Amino acid sequence: MLTVGQLARIFRVSTKTLRHYDAIGLFAPAKVGGDNLYRYYAPQQLNELKRILFLRSMKVGIGIIRELKCCGALYDDERIKRILEEQAELIRDEIARQHALLHNVEQILSDMGSAGKLDREVRIVRRTAFTVVGMEWHSSDSGGSISDLWERFELREHEVSHIVNPDISYGLGIPGKDGLFTYVAGFEVGEVEVQVPHGMVKVEVPEQSYAVFSHQGNVEGIVHTMSGIYECLLPQNGLVPVEAIDYELYDARFLGADHADTEIDLYIPIHME
């Protein structure tokens, strides 16, 4: 079972959004703890949430999504395509104010189902503790995004000293209280006492076992890859995820955020006896 925090991390949404979907009956947890009232979600629910968030990102109203779910049409691609085409027509009527949204709708309509590929091969590694220095973004922030964070960090990455390997950067997902998480973009640094530049943070990543998967395709497709990992690949391999720091590893295979041949390794913390 997944906690609300793990679900928020997988899909890069706030826990407030997930609690709201529960309150309005759109997406409810599979189980609620009898003593602590914590919400727990089954891996089989990830595909449904992925579809709901996709439709919301296209500005489809919650009422329409609820109707699709109630009548069993949430996975009816033809019906969803018709809805998106109607939405695109509305956006064209407001092209001056809605140009960015129109681009997203048309891209989704033309590339539906090709956001990225997941290498089904899994590697199990035991990573010793290491230290990362970089810039952070909090899921509770109302402005900005993880992509914006990387753009800001790239302008200042030269300020980080004692980098172990400048050709490898990390995107850490650090779980917090109440389902919130912090994302840190940075470099691994050596064991020497490193001076942290103003506006940056130092994160000590403890020793941990990881299941390592390779995401292929544009960075936006990581959402689909993470969903596939938690929904299918971890259960199929008998692996149990734990709530700990996960991370994305970017090396020479990273050819750009929108490049179809980009490869990124995803390190998912798992329980090992």
Automatic annotation (TrEMBL):
What the entry lists under SMART domains is as follows: AraC_E_bind, HTH_MERR
Entry-linked SUPFAM superfamilies = Probable bacterial effector-binding domain, Putative DNA-binding domain
Q: Which residues form the HTH merR-type domain?
A: 1-71
Q: Which Pfam families match?
A: GyrI-like (PF06445), MerR_1 (PF13411)
Origin superkingdom:
Bacteria
- Claim: DNA-binding is one of the keywords in the record: yes
Sorted alphabetically, the keyword list is: DNA-binding
Q: InterPro entries from the xrefs?
A: AraC_E-bd, DNA-bd_dom_put_sf, GyrI-like, MerR-type_HTH_dom, MerR_fam, Reg_factor_effector_dom_sf
What is the protein name stated in its UniProt record?
HTH merR-type domain-containing protein
